[in-house]
TrEMBL record:
GO biological process, one term: apoptotic process
Tagged with keyword Magnesium: no
The protein's name in its UniProt record: Sodium/myo-inositol cotransporter 2
Record flagged with keyword Ion transport: yes
PANTHER family tied to this protein: SODIUM_MYO-INOSITOL COTRANSPORTER 2, SOLUTE CARRIER FAMILY 5
Record's subcellular location: Apical cell membrane
Transmembrane segments: 41-61, 73-94, 114-138, 261-280, 292-316, 323-345, 365-386
Family indicated by similarity: Belongs to the sodium:solute symporter (SSF) (TC 2.A.21) family.
Length: 451
């Protein structure tokens, strides 16, 4: 692949209907604070390019699981990550992508939701199975062009509607069903707390829209505003299948043939799709129907332990496998507890009493993410400090401070000395001390060949 379809695929894999519709709907309900995720994404990509990519290049790794496997060794952490990412793909990627795309098909063609899901899966299967990942990349490149044209057109409409002229911003004191706070309420934050972000953002409780859209553009926002996100199911299914076959099935059956891996991968994709379809009703009811917030909340419960272990591995040479393992275990257990509580105690409407537990009602998911990161950090640091340090091979070229370590050439074995035999006292041939090792190796190889 040349650079432009790869870059376009990266763009299209991130920006989609979750931003055009879902993110816009959350913005209409809670204000511009929800844009913090996209602003943070800019800094994250720059950090990847200037800080983490040099470590990847020095360590000759291409993915984060591969980095953690090389940095800490063992099989416990790779297996935990494989299971975790399969869980994340099912509950935040595949099911969300299918549901979001089906919503568009349902509203456009007036079809049943699950019939629209079947149609979406059929279309995705045609170009994914026929062309593989290359077809997905080129399809994403085409989507990038379409989305840029559509975004510029939408920006023109929203900036100055042709039929009514530009209007003043609308105060955020509308009725409860629109998602804004009741009259007279003074919340600490409006959806996204400013102190829960890596960089400060202004509170946005004053304004819900910068401008009114024409009626034909407002209607899709009302239909999909809180319920639509990204519309691609092909790439996550590819990735989840690869994780299962290469990281889990290969571990169970290390001698599996290429044909077996291919069959297992395709069967697993069907299983993933089935489980994701069964999960869609839960997605519809979660986080008050705001699909974008649903994705961010689950990520806040499951991703911080992995991020902390990765950052500690990159910047503290003393971090070892035991510290990383127990930090992951404790952090993921706490995150799963909060995740289950969120599914059990659904957020009520703003005109209904909130009787959820304090842990769910009063601690925003971004605050919980900060607590989770702190607990994981303390666990990793404590366990690593009181256990044996990692070997030099697991640190060299794999941290920020050792990325420039000189490459150590392995010593060349000395040339084999000619085999000289001497007679022992009983007349049997006996290898001399200088050639006994080679003589034993010849005997061992001969026996192996015979067996």
């Amino acid at each position: 692949m040349v650079w432009w379809p790869v870059g376009a695929s990266l763009f299209a894999s991130n920006v989609g209907s979750g931003h055009f519709i879902g993110l816009a709907g959350s913005g209409a309900a809670t204000g511009i604070s929800v844009s913090a995720y996209e602003l943070n994404g800019l800094f994250s990509v720059l950090m990847l390019a200037w800080i983490f990519l040099p470590i990847y290049i020095a360590g000759q790794v291409t993915t984060m699981p591969e980095y953690l496997r090389k940095r800490f060794g063992g099989i416990r952490i790779p297996i935990i990550l494989a299971v975790l990412y399969l869980f994340i793909y099912i509950f935040t990627k595949i099911s969300v992508d299918m549901y979001a795309g089906a919503i568009f098909i349902q509203q456009s063609l007036h079809l049943d939701l699950y019939l629209a899901i079947v149609g979406l899966l059929a279309i995705t299967a045609v170009y994914t199975v026929a062309g593989g990942l290359a077809a997905v990349i080129y399809t994403d490149a085409l989507q990038t062009l379409i989305m840029l044209i559509g975004a510029l057109t939408l920006m023109g409409y929203s900036d100055c509607p042709a039929d009514s002229g530009c209007q003043e911003p609308v105060p955020c004191q509308r009725r409860c069903s629109d998602g804004c706070v009741p009259e007279g309420a003074a919340p600490l934050h409006n959806g996204v707390p400013w102190d829960g972000q890596p960089h400060p953002l202004p509170r946005s409780s004053g304004l819900c829209r910068s401008r009114d859209l024409p009626e034909d553009l407002q209607q899709p926002l009302r239909l999909f505003g809180h319920r639509v996100s990204q519309t691609r199911a092909g790439t996550p299914a590819h990735s989840a299948s690869t994780i299962f076959t290469m990281d889990l099935w290969n571990h169970l059956r290390p001698r599996a043939s290429e044909k077996e891996l291919m069959i297992v991968g395709r069967v697993f994709v069907l299983l993933l799709v089935l489980v994701s379809i069964l999960w869609i009703p839960v997605v519809q009811a979660s986080q008050g129907g705001q699909l974008f917030i649903y994705i961010q909340s689950i990520s806040s419960y499951l991703q911080p332990p992995v991020a902390v272990v990765f950052i500690m591995g990159c910047f503290w040479k003393r971090t070892n496998e035991k510290g990383a393992f127990w930090g992951l275990i404790l952090g993921l257990l706490l995150g799963l507890v909060r995740l289950v509580l969120d599914f059990i105690y659904v957020q009520p409407r703003c005109d209904q009493p909130d009787e959820r537990p304090v842990l769910v009602k009063s601690i925003h998911y971004l605050y919980f993410s900060m607590i989770l990161s702190t607990v994981t950090l303390i666990t990793v640091s404590t366990v690593s400090w009181f256990t044996e340090p990692p070997s030099k091979e697991m640190v060299s070229h794999l941290t920020w401070f050792t990325r420039h370590d000189p490459v150590v050439q392995k010593e060349q074995a000395p040339p084999a000395a000619p085999l000289s035999l001497t007679l022992s006292q009983n007349g049997m041939p006996e290898a001399s001390s200088s050639s006994s090792v080679q003589f034993e190796m010849v005997q061992e190889n001969t026996s192996k060949t015979h067996s």
